[in-house]
Amino acid sequence: DYRMSLDKGDLIQTSGDGAARVNFADGTTYTVQADTLVTVEENSVGRDSETRVAMHISSGAVDLATGTWESPKSKAEVSFSNAVASVQQNSRAAVRSDPKTNQSDITVSAGTAELATTDGRQHVEIGKWERATVPAGGGNVIKTNVLAPPELAEPLNLQPMSVPDPKHSPVHFEWKPVQGAVSYEIRVSTTSMFSRIVEDRKLP
Asked: Is 51 left (phi over 0), alpha (psi -120 to 50) or beta?
C-alpha cells in the first residue's frame, strides 16, 4: 500500500495486470510496470543533502523520473545484468530488460543519462529521445534515435473532461503529426499507470 516503506535489498514483483510506484525522499520516482522484478539497491542521504537512489531490474520494465536535487553530487541509478544507467536531475527514462535474450535498453524522454557497462569498457551519453541498447554477450552498446510521441491537441494533457453521458458520449482525440511516423497507436485505460487497458487501436 501507499504507506509501505522499502529498504535496501527489498524485492518488488508485479503481476501481469499490476504496477507499482516507488517514491524516494529526493523526489525520484520509479514506476514498476507489469510482469517486472526489481530490487532496491540504494536509498541514502549523505552530507550536504547528497542523495543516492538505485534499483536493479532483473526482468521487465521500469520508468523513472528525477526532480531537482539539493546537491549536484546526488545520483539516481538503475542497473541490469551487464550495465548501469545514471539518470541526471530533471530527467525521465524508460528501462527494459529481457532475461530471455539478455538484452537491455534505456530510452531517455527528458534530460540526460549516462550508461556504463559493468566491465568498465564503454560509457555512453544519452540525450532526449535517444536509446542505448546493450546486446547479449557483452557486445558494443548501440545508440539510436527514437520518435518522440505526438503532441496532444485535444484533449490537452491532464485536462478534465465533463460529458452528460460518460458511457455513450464520444471523445474526440487529436494530435499533431510526427515527421517520419507511419502509424499511431492510441491506448485508453481506467488506471493512471495503464494496468487495465480498455482500448488499444492502431491508426494510419
From this structure: beta
The DSSP line for 106-159 is EEEEES-EEEEETTSS-EEEE-TTEEEEE-TTS---EEEE-PPPPPEEESPTT-
What's the pLDDT band for 51 if we cut at 50, 70, 90? very high
Cis geometry, peptide bond prior to residue 170 (ω within 30 degrees of 0): no
Rounded to 5°, angle at Cα 129 from 24 and 79: 40
CB of 141 closer than 8 Å to CB of 153: no
Residue 83, classified by CB atoms within 10 Å of its CB into exposed (0-12), middle (13-18) or buried (19+), is buried
pLDDT, averaged across the chain: 90
Handedness of CA 190, 174, 67, 37 (dihedral sign): positive
pLDDT tens, residue by residue, 146-198: 988 898 899 887 788 888 888 888 888 999 998 888 999 998 888 776 778 88
In this prediction the pTM is 0.82
Q: Which three cell numbers stand for residue 14?
A: 508485479
